Amino acid sequence: MSGAEIGKAKSYLYSIAGNIIKNYYKKKKEILLDQLPDIEKDNLTEIEIRLDVERALDLLPEEIKETAILFFFQGLKQKRNF
Fold this sequence. Notes:
This protein is mainly alpha-helical. The chain has one domain. The chain has helices at residues 3-59, 62-73. The longest helix is centred in the middle third of the chain and has 57 residues, at 3-59. It is rod-shaped.
């Protein structure tokens, strides 16, 4: 084989290898994209719940709202007077 023929064969093999790699990552992306709707749904549900909680808290009087936030979200405990 001459140098030119070796160069062509090498170029051909690199093209094949490149296409195999592209196809591999393309299939890998398709799998990941198929999983995205479930992830988005979960995130959307979490966001909707958070908005509902915030709306409900906004309906409370300010003092009770602050107490609820401190207790449920900040983890502060009630002081007991015995």
